[in-house]
Amino acid sequence: MTPFLSRERACAAAVAFATGTLATLAVGVPTAGAHYFGSTPKNDVVSAATNYNNCSSKLTTNKLAGLMLSIPWHEVTGRNVSLTPSPMTMGRADNDADLYYNRNTSGSTRRAFWHPGIGVWQLDDAGMGSRGSFGKFDTYNAAIIVAQHISSRYCSNSSLSSVFAPWVACNGGYCATTFSQVYSPSSNTLTHLNLDSTVGRYGGSAARTCKFTGQTATFTCYYVNYNNAQGHTGWVYNINGTPPLALPYYVFRQNVNSTSYEVRVWIRADTGFGSNVGARRVYGANSRNGLSWGTINICDTTAGRGSC
């Protein structure tokens, strides 16, 4: 099996640099103190471990949940377990020209930018997140993907180095150490967790109802605005840098005949551009070379925003 998260795994280093914890990334090992995690996201992890365990003969629900929980601090908080991972986290490592609107890497539209790695597990659309859209932005759906992959890997090879191999931030045994701290094999329980009720399933993104302008059919969309992010926001830095942090946008799934797309749309009210702009990616395609950019007009019927 080839690694799933090829490029975005450097996100942990990018976030650590932003938060001044880069040295911790290299040599620090989290202690067995309280590990902060969102209360609803933790419930989503346990639910996914209960219902999407592909190796139930070898993995209990809590052991699988412990494996899943061992990753996020290394991916998105610079290994600082006292920070609550944000389900909205957008990876800041990728800078491919195709990720910019019409490949405009400079100029006024450059923050119409597509982040490939999303969430507490940094699901990448070149890997585990390739067949997802708004689900990558919430822990209920993301946890299902991670539970299936980790349990399948465990059944093939139960060594923790193999189980955690898709996440480069786990290299060096870091996630294995965290696993020994958040899961007790003797009691088969999760331990050393401090549940943070201020961080929800969406991490600050908002589930809305949208429609394409001029059409009546509606669909679920998520409004992703970094200003509303919950939990650790060390990835919200140097927003005009290279790569930039995307301006607020909508993300949703579009089905055209038998083809599914992940679509992200930036509306004028959020960007100040002359028109709404957007991009879409066929499920299974890598956004680094598989995006189609153009004008996409939608209406957020929940909030009355966009081209209504």
Order of helices and strands: HHEHHHEEHHHEEEEEEEHEEEE
Strand content: 15-25%
Question: How many separate domains make up the residues?
Answer: 2
Overall shape = globular
Return the structural class: alpha+beta
Main-sheet strand order equals 12-11-10-9-8-7-13-14
Q: What is the makeup of the main sheet?
A: 8 strands, antiparallel
Helix content class: 25-40%
Q: Compute the separation of the termini in Å.
A: 46 Å
Task: Calculate the mean pLDDT score and round it.
Answer: 91
What Rg is obtained from the alpha carbons, in whole angstroms?
Answer: 19 Å
Total helical elements: 9
Low-confidence stretches: 1-28
Number of β-strand runs:
14
Explain this structure.
The structure is a single chain. With 308 residues, the protein is of the alpha+beta class. It has two domains: 31-94 and 120-196, no CATH class; 203-306, no CATH class. The chain contains nine helices and 14 strands. The protein has helices at residues 11-19, 22-27, 39-51, 61-69, 72-76, 139-156, 160-163, 174-182, 268-271, and strands at residues 35-38, 117-118, 123-124, 183-184, 189-190, 193-196, 206-212, 218-224, 249-256, 259-266, 277-282, 291-294, 298-300, 305-306. The strands form four sheets. The chain has an eight-stranded antiparallel β-sheet. A two-stranded parallel sheet has the order 1-6. A two-stranded antiparallel ribbon has the order 2-3. β4 and β5 form a beta hairpin. α3 packs across α4, α3 (39-51) crosses α6 and α4 crosses α6 (139-156). The protein is globular, with a radius of gyration of 19 Å. The relative contact order is 0.19. The model is unreliable at 1-28 (pLDDT under 50).
